[in-house]
Structures are given as structure tokens and as C-alpha cells.
Design a protein that fits this description.
mainly alpha; Helix Hairpins; 0% strand
Length: 116
């Protein structure tokens, strides 16, 4: 049972490291705070809140995974390699795809409420 709780400690350390040291994670946390404030001021429904919270959680999780891929690639090779670049670009591309999708969903949720 002790090892089970130790795993949570490691996971929490990763989250804290990302929040403190990763520029993109910081940016996503700031954007999440703005969206949460906008949601509170707008008066979102329960379903809208669930969607927003899922999107925020997945966006931050995906950014943490992107940072992990970058670290792992950097650990394996210290010099430029086309496959290392592809791995990093693919991970960053996944983040971008989800960020664009999240922005579209956010617009679909917020714009009708703001334009009425």
C-alpha cells in the first residue's frame, strides 16, 4: 500500500514540476484560469462545466506528456537527429490539434451566451 501512495507522490511531483518549470504548461494554466473565470461570470450549465473541466484537464495532461517526450528524446540523443525532431514535432502537433479543438468547443459554448 505504501508503494501505491508513493506513486501519487511521483505523479504530483511531475505536475508541480510542469506548473513551475514548463513555459507551455504555465500558459495553459493561465488560460484555464481565464476560462474558469469566464465560465463563472457567464453562468455555465452543469454539462458545460463538465465539458470545460474535461478539456482543461486533457489539455494540461497532454502538455505534460509533450514535455515528457521532449525530455526522453533529449536524454537519448544530445545531438540533432531527424527522428528525434519528428518525435518532438509529433508530440507538439498533438498538443496543437487538441488546443485548436478546445478553442472551437469553447467558442461554441461561450459565443452564443455572449452574443445574445
Amino acid at each position: 500500500m505504501k508503494r501505491y501512495f508513493k506513486a501519487f507522490s511521483y505523479a504530483w511531483s511531475g505536475i508541480v514540476h510542469g506548473a513551475l518549470h514548463e513555459r507551455n504548461v504555465k500558459s495553459h494554466i493561465a488560460a484555464a484560469a481565464a476560462v474558469l473565470l469566464a465560465g463563472w461570470l457567464t453562468g455555465l450549465s452543469r454539462m458545460e462545466w463538465m465539458i470545460i473541466i474535461i478539456l482543461i484537464g486533457l489539455m494540461i495532461a497532454l502538455e505534460l506528456l509533450n514535455a515528457a517526450v521532449e525530455r526522453a528524446v533529449d536524454l537519448v540523443t544530445g545531438e540533432f537527429h531527424p527522428l528525434a525532431k519528428q518525435a518532438k514535432d509529433l508530440a507538439a502537433g498533438a498538443v496543437l490539434v487538441f488546443a485548436i479543438s478546445s478553442a472551437i468547443i469553447g467558442a461554441l459554448i461561450f459565443l452564443p451566451k455572449w452574443l445574445i
